[in-house]
Design brief:
Strand order of the largest sheet: 7-6-5-4-3-2-1-8-9-10
Number of strands: 10
Shape: globular
Structural class: alpha/beta
Distance between the termini: 7 Å
Length: 354
Amino acid sequence: MTTLSLRQRIALELHRQLLKEMQEMHPLRQLFWECTLRCNMKCRHCGSDCKVSAEQRDMPFADFRKVLEDVKQKYDSHKVMIVITGGEPLMRKDLEQCGRAIYDMEFPWGVVSNGYLMTPQRIESLLESGMHCATISLDGFEQQHEWMRGVPGSFRNASRAIEILAKEPQIKFDVVTCVNKMNYGSLAELKEYLISLGLKEWRLFTVFPVGRAAQDPMLQLDKEQFRGLMEFIRDTRKEGRINANYGCEGFLGEFEGQVRDHLFTCQAGTSVGSVLIDGSISACASIRADYTQGNIYREKFTDVWENRYQPYRDRSWMKKDECKNCRWFRYCLGGGMHLRNGDGKLLFCHLDRF
């Protein structure tokens, strides 16, 4: 049973009021573009089951450009970060041209990448195209990372990209690590390795059971390991040598305020929107078709953003099943939207891991 200090309760109550205001105002701050489903990895935990040759063609940039033109008419483009994701965005040979066009429209932009194709030359061309931020995945040392990613050489290439990007002061850069049974015991050594590469920002997350990950017990931490992960992140933050954060997946009870730069909130549909590969308008790119709100090929993105997203902005419908009588619902609001299936059922609760 989780317990909270008086200080945590006060902070959570204040945060609760701020979140209500955010939901009412819903300022668009991040817009994900799922530009491709092609990928050069065979990741064990992939939720979208991407392939090198995807059945769904890449979205033409001209189609996404219309979305940006619509957004720019209504909102301050300087305050909306465009995050290009996939699949693997660098599979697109026109990524730099897309990035330059986004930059010329006065939107900051960045990529989420596995790092395999991030050669020094490619990084230079991305920076010249105005890239503002980047996220690279590294899931442990060579054996652990390539067990997860399924491609020889992926650890070497990702490490090279991290070392280069960590030295670029003009961009916001972090590394994400999927913590699982294979790499859990090496987190302290991995921390030292990342520090040696010059990394300042490290984001750790755990797998939620969808896609390929649902049937792989090696990807799921047990309760003792999950608590150990929280303690590791808390202690790493206290050290101050690298800024570690747990992902935004769920409410963490006694660890709230200790393992993230912010208290738990799911910003999907409140400040985060997305355009998926088929034109579907959604929120966080981890949330699939069950909660799409429209489609750019039928309607304007801004009309949808302003007038829909009720399931995201009013989470009272989540107060059912195991959440119905939970005393922490006022702070958790049912957890992250990506943890709900198409019927609205919660896939798992983080508090059950303690």
